[in-house]
Amino acid sequence: MKIRIKDNSVRYRLTRSEVTELGEKGFLSAATAFTDRPFLYSIEAVETRELSVAFVENTIVLKMPKTMIDELVHTGKVGFSGQSGAVKLLVEKDFACIDNTLEDQSDNYPNPNLTC
What we know:
16% of the residues lie in helices and 45% in strands. The chain is an alpha/beta fold. A 4-stranded mixed beta sheet has the order 1-2-8-7. A 4-stranded mixed beta sheet has the order 3-4-6-5.
């Protein structure tokens, strides 16, 4: 799982296995091990209708409706967007890059721009 943060926007990108795990467990998390303490980010399934976010004890917690998770898992839907207060949110499937990259992309979704 990757996140991109810019000003008041947070974007989560999920690989195929992460989408599957989120669908099965209803929870997904990752961490960056800074020297003094880890920075954590997660997604948890909720029984609401809209995306929301909270920042609790150095953890960004994206709350995603179960219906959205089911659609992400079982359809070709690429992602969902929303807003929580001033923060814009985006959750999307992670596509393989078109350009050369050293990053392992074997678990990414095929990029639709590579087909005619």
